[in-house]
């Protein structure tokens, strides 16, 4: 058991780090979209516009907080909290590196290594839909209600293939623990491939990423807040830091999904064909494992931005059809084939 002080330090560090990345992602999103559309993007507040997130934060904190007269006040206030808290808490079980050894004491770079692993993340992800539904209903706005209803159907639909793919990963690695799954991806597979989940579950990875985009409400799956049809969906009536909680929660959720993708399918902190622990000291190895994990995660964060500004939004019937007619059958096939291969090779 770790000291309580070390656990507290890890909790404070990971909350600060995740919030920092979420803040930076608002800048990356704008600069990335500007680059793809041949625009400048934010370039006034600080060098290269890097202080734009600070300006946005000041605006959100100081903006008047307006509550619609006919809104259901308690539900209206509860919606952003129900959305943001699960997003901020989900990263607790994701390992962000291997371990750090200080004065002979081994510090695992993970807030909590629980044996239910990603089931904790799936459960908290399911709670986010309550934030959208409650916020939309509490706003007493027809567009907000439509956005909330869309989020209910979409998130529940895509959580099914999301969970089935994760079950296939459990079959492959034989554990629910994200840390044990990370440790199991060291070495090679078939003698020449990195022993990463993506090579053992290629179809599972594609299905997982598709479901993850839908879970994150990102284009082309952003129907709950489609501004071309329902203004901004479930958060149409929100402003000030209530809106800020929705926006921050979305970016924190992106970071968690990107980190989960790296953990399950891309070797976590491991480099292909290279064991950093053999030539790095205990402290430098811990720092290097953290940096490797973050750089892999940063790639998938950029992929979220890249796809958002490249792929057009689907129609709602297309979104639901893809989930129920394609992803769920394919995820079941992937699960059965995985089980069959494991049974035949045991």
| Radius of gyration using CA atoms only | 21 Å
Give the helices and strands as they follow along the chain. Answer: HHHEEHHHEEHHHHHH
User: What percent of residues are in strands?
Assistant: under 5%
Q: What is the overall pLDDT average?
A: 85
Distance between the termini: 35 Å
Low-confidence stretches: none
Q: Into which percent range does the helicity of residues fall?
A: 55-70%
Q: Judging from the principal axes of the Cα atoms, what is the shape?
A: globular
Give the strand order of the largest sheet, numbering strands 1, 2, ... along the chain. 1-2
The major sheet is characterized as:
2 strands, antiparallel
User: Quick one: how many beta strands?
Assistant: 4
Total domain modules? 1
Class of secondary structure makeup: mainly alpha
What's the tally of helices? 12
Note down, in words, how this protein is organized.
The protein is mainly α and 346 residues long. The chain has helices at residues 4-36, 52-62, 73-90, 118-139, 142-173, 178-183, 197-200, 202-215, 227-230, 240-265, 282-308, 316-345; strands at residues 99-102, 105-108, 188-189, 193-194. The strands form two sheets. Strands 1-2 form a two-stranded antiparallel sheet. The two termini are 35 Å apart.
